[in-house]
Design the sequence.
C-alpha cells in the first residue's frame, strides 16, 4: 500500500452516492447554508480521511458535521469539536498548528491520520445502521493502506463500536463479551492495532467538563506511547 492507494480511496469516497438519505441531506445543507456561512461555498460531499501516510495513530470519529466538515471539506474542521481536537493534536505533537480552517489551509499531521466511521453528514448527527455498514469498507481499505498504524483512537462510543467492526472485517477475533467503551479504555486484539477510547470532543462533553483539555491530552500522549512514537519536544 502507498500514498497512491490512499489517493484512490479518497477519490472513491468523495464520489460516493450509495446512501440516498445522506446524499440528499448533505446537498440540502450545502445549498441552504447557515446564515453565518452564507458567503461560503460548501463542500457538500463525503469527507475523505486526512493526515500522514506513515501514521502510527488513527483517530476515528463518528461523522462530518453538517456545517463543519460538510462545509470545509476536511474531517473535524469548521466546528467547535474540531477546534478542541486540533488544538489538542497540536499540543501532543501530531499537528503542525493548533487550528484547522479548511481542506486547503496547509495544515499537516505527523504520525496521525484522522477519519470518520461515516463519511457524509447525517441528519441529527445520527447515521442508520445500514449507512454505517455501507461506509465500513472505506475504513477497512484505509487501514490496509496505513500499515504503520498501531493505535486506533476512538472518539466516542459510536467510533469504538465501528472500530470493533473494522477489526472484525480484517478477520481479528473480537472478544466476547464485546469490550465496552470508556474514556481511557484500552483493548489489544491479537496483532491488530490497540483500541483506545476517548470521550467525543462535542460541545456537550467539552462545555460540561465531561471532557477537559487535560483529559484529551492524557489520552493522546497515551496513544503516542502505545504506538511507539517519541513524545513531542517540550516548548519553552
Sequence:
Amino acid at each position: 500500500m502507498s500514498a497512491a492507494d490512499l489517493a484512490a480511496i479518497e477519490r472513491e469516497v468523495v464520489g460516493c452516492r450509495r446512501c440516498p438519505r445522506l446524499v440528499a441531506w448533505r446537498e440540502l445543507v450545502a445549498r441552504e447554508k447557515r446564515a453565518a456561512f452564507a458567503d461560503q461555498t460548501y463542500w457538500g460531499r463525503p469527507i475523505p480521511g486526512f493526515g500522514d501516510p506513515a501514521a502510527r495513530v488513527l483517530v476515528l470519529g463518528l461523522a462530518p458535521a453538517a456545517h463543519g466538515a460538510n462545509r470545509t471539506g476536511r474531517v473535524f474542521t469548521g466546528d467547535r469539536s474540531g477546534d478542541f481536537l486540533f488544538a489538542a493534536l497540536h499540543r501532543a505533537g501530531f499537528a503542525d498548528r493548533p487550528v484547522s480552517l479548511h481542506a486547503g489551509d496547509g495544515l499537516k499531521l505527523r504520525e496521525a491520520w484522522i477519519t470518520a466511521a461515516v463519511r457524509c453528514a447525517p441528519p441529527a448527527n445520527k447515521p442508520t445502521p445500514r449507512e454505517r455498514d455501507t461506509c465500513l469498507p472505506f475504513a477497512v481499505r484505509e487501514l490496509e493502506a496505513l500499515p504503520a498504524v498501531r493505535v486506533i483512537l476512538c472518539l466516542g462510543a459510536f467510533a469504538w463500536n465501528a472500530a470493533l467492526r473494522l477489526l472484525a472485517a480484517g478477520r481479528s477475533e473480537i472478544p466476547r463479551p464485546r469490550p465496552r467503551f470508556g474514556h481511557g479504555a484500552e483493548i489489544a486484539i491479537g496483532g491488530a492495532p490497540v483500541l483506545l477510547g476517548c470521550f467525543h470532543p462535542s460541545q456537550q462533553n467539552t462545555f460540561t467538563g465531561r471532557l477537559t483539555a487535560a483529559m484529551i491530552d492524557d489520552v493522546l500522549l497515551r496513544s503516542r506511547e502505545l504506538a511507539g512514537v517519541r513524545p513531542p519536544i517540550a516548548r519553552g
